[in-house]
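cron nightly-structures :: item 1 of 1
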Amino acid sequence: MASPAAPRPGRWTRLGAALHHSARILLLPWPRYTFDDLAAVQDCLDGPAFSRAARALRDDDDGRRVLRVSPRLGIPSVDWPALSALPIDSLGYNLWHHFHSNGLLEEVPLGPPVVCWDADTECAKDRYRATHDLRHVLLGLGVSGPEEVALQAFQCAQLFQKLSALIVVFGALKHSLADGAGGWLLRTLPRAWRAGRRARFVLTMPVEQMWEMRLVDARAAWGVVPVGAVYPVAARHPDARPLAPGGAVGPLSALAG
């Protein structure tokens, strides 16, 4: 469980920090702005959103287990080579493919949080951040700037956050002007929003118990309609391990028991 909340900075201090880091995200190209900038804006603005997420977890059987066990779903805690040996259409294989092919298999340490909320809210926030790339795979989206904006529309529909709303509005403008992606975004953002509204809250997904499930079945179980076609992938990556007999990987679940 997350550590007890520390005293929070005042409203104006939080607003100033949020504006500072938002300006860096908007004006600087990646990687001159960093995950710390994104986390700082989220810490300052979206504590109430993650309090709602914590309530949603408490109201769901799988969610209550997440809060009770507080599993660490992160780079060091997942057996990535084992996931690479799963069938190509499985959730676990596609998540491995996403992390491996995009060079994401190195944990990104964040600095101290700008704001700490209560323990359940911090747990929900940590889980939400840890499952960000899971939502990329569920929605069939890669990691380009326009695809990230589309993902944020889905996330905003599932759990309204000021950070997600800012990324949708200003990110859509930025990538329309810089990348010529306006037409794609105009078509995709409404679809992503509708997908988020219709799907079950993805944060409750016990993904550690679902590695071997087909991606299409995982989507169906949570009512997620993909808006992109990147996943499931069409061919095994040459760096993937040979397919495991029967597609079984053993007891990988951090939520088992």
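cron nightly-structures :: done
The chain has a mean pLDDT of 87.
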